[in-house]
Fe2+/Zn2+ uptake regulation protein (Reinekea blandensis MED297), 306 residues
Amino acid sequence: MNQLDDALQQADQASTRAGLKLTPKRRHLFSLLLASDTPLSAYELADRFKDSFGQAIPAMSVYRMLDFLTENNLAHKLTSENKFVSCAHSTCNHAHQVPQFLICERCHQVKEVGIKKEVFDALRESVDSAGYSLREAQLELKCLCAACAEATE
Amino acid sequence: MNQLDDALQQADQASTRAGLKLTPKRRHLFSLLLASDTPLSAYELADRFKDSFGQAIPAMSVYRMLDFLTENNLAHKLTSENKFVSCAHSTCNHAHQVPQFLICERCHQVKEVGIKKEVFDALRESVDSAGYSLREAQLELKCLCAACAEATE
DNA sequence: AAGATAAATGATATGATATATCATTAATTA
DNA sequence: TAATTAATGATATATCATATCATTTATCTT
């Protein structure tokens, strides 16, 4: 079984456990995100959905399904790009951490890594010392991936 | 002289030194950002521009002026909000640091603090260890400000 | 199983954000 | 002062996102 099917199967199981309704369409949308090596916009997803599923789907529905996926940590929205990616932890049992996205400026691939505890602590400390309380953090960092860094030299 | 005028004057001087053309319209747009206690969208700025300057201005021009302001570190774009704020350091001689924005979820006020060296180092280290190289960081953190945290309790 | 209820999706319209492009005006410079 | 460049205007359109009401599908209750 390939990686994608494996990931989907794990999402199925996780959804069942959590009592979530990963409907065929939501599942298919999720598979499109899983299969993509770059983030996709809602409209790009609608196009791919039609191409691969043979059925046109309104943008409204795509946004709703993306809401479902992001609310249930199967996907994330990259606010700096207005695009969506599958969650790197959707297929494992890792507790969901503060996500940190390394976005390659050149090839647009994204790597999601969990934020390190020391970074988080330092961040929270700096927020506290400004008199604020942290509610939610999602770090999006503009980077070059190794391949692109090499190509750019 | 009030704070706003003072800030503008410092921006004038800094622009002159740097050979930037802070035209009357750019300057006025900047003053709108300085005067606002919350981030503003380009279209909100266009409205305020008309209201306060007596002259309608096309959205395109607002975006161009915002490009100028952001490129020259007089303003920042908050990508998670699609809104713009004046730079907290536009009026001082601080070297421009990696900005960290504390955005109050409730009242939408934003506090810009410089990222602490330890946070930055830890961040860079985590990026490096993922095989990426950091190009640009702008942290946008969803928080509650002190006043709103109290009101919410 | 039948009907009631709720959840998901479709259809349509529209709002909000942003950029492309060419024309015009203003500033700079040769 | 003419030539050139930079800034802004005008217009159109692309792109991202949500509001709202209708319809279909799933789930629950009896």
